[in-house]
Amino acid sequence: MNIEAVYDLLSIFLVRMSQFNMLSETFDRSMKFSSEEFHLWYQFALSLTCAGKYARAVLVLQECHRLKPTNASVLMMAAKICFKHLAQIDEGIEFCRKVVALQKKQLYTARAYMMLGIGEAMKAGEATLNKERQQYHKQSLEALKTAECLDRQDHLIAFHYALQLAHSRQIPEALEKIRTALSLCSEHAESLHLLALLLSSQKLFNDALKVIKGAVEQYPDNTSMLFTMIKLEEIVRGPDEALMTCKTMLSMWKKTHDDIMHSDTFQGMVLIEKVGSDKRSMAHVHISELKDRDSGSIHNSLAASRVEQALSEVASSMGSYIPKPGSQQVWYTQAQIWLSTAEIYLAVGKLSEARSCMQEAVSIFPLSHQILHMLGCIHDHKGELTVAKKYYDNALAINPSYVKSLQNLGMVYLEQQNYTMAEKLLKDAVNIDPTSHVSWNHLGRILMSQGEYETASEFLMTSLELESTAPIVPFRVIPRIL
User: Fold this and answer.
1) What b/e sequence results for 259-279 when a residue is b if at least 16 CB atoms lie within 10 Å of its CB, and e otherwise?
2) Model confidence over 36-89: pLDDT tens digits?
3) Which residues contact 84 (CB under 8 A, 6 or more apart)?
4) What is the pTM of this model?
């Protein structure tokens, strides 16, 4: 039996036991004896990826590329890791271009163009100048159009094309593409979610609610769709039904948490070990979920998650905060449910109930910028502007690109007649997310207060135009899946 077969059998055994760290360490020790064996290097890269050691996995994949320069799957995997886990957008784009340059199988080329389009879209999210941002959006759409021409039967290409059109607010074209995607794969969860958001952007809230309810029946554990359903229910059927959905989500969360923490089967113990020792914990949760439900760039979201994690570790070492046991992703979901419930109570003026919900959220992640922002909102509704300002400032100290806090803090400064600071904050908000009609509306109101009526009217008109195509929740809640 040769060495490759031995390591293949070892890989099968350890993968079934979810012992990815042990597998990667085993490969690490053996690679000095197999320096030119492509198969072992590739297995090493896969084990590092499964163990969450993404930066090193990319380095190993580069070695695989050196050994087999024409292997497109190696480059595609490296690009996927760069985009999905490392926020190394330029490096990911370069890997995609290398696949395109190979001009191999049509499948690889089409998917490479799709990933190139995703990379350009991510670059647009990072751009600070509007001209630069528009250029990246244009390049993204061109790459996705090329991908579609190469493979019209790939539902993921159609989905990403529709998603990018939605971000560019080309709603009719996006609806056409998402229907194409669903005709190719009618059960694709993210396509169903995007269809619901596109319908809501056309103010067809009843139709959007029907779509999202049908999707939730197929995917009852998809929390992102459940949060969207809460927003739609609040508009279509009132806050009471939305609160009932929040209560259902809390019950689902309790069942999931109990299943993880109290499972007495061997597989359950492996799962607990896996999630309990996950080195990514908070940082991974925020990059994969938080950035998509909030505004701001990937790098800023990652930076915010690292700041929150560092502050939590400092607070924990001082004894003022004890992290919850088990998977932080599970606890993060519960905190999001409490936040959504607090928003509903706040919208109907039940401040004491909103405060109670926030106390629950604070007990889970006291240093989250979202939670600090919501506490600021509660004090804002009470008219306690000084306290609200402190919470908004703290939220922005953790995540400077959090648009909601920029918007609200700007309006606090407007109330205090500090027009210079109010204008600066709202311009920052517009620069971070130029599709937010709330930011344009607030900026118009600030300029109107200063007597700049002509410019203010332009901004208010822009706000109305954007609001006419605004979905119930931002399109960025839908991840750019790879």
Assistant:
1) ebeeeeeeeeeebbeeeeeee
2) 889 899 999 999 999 999 999 999 999 999 999 999 999 999 999 999 999 999
3) 482
4) 0.86
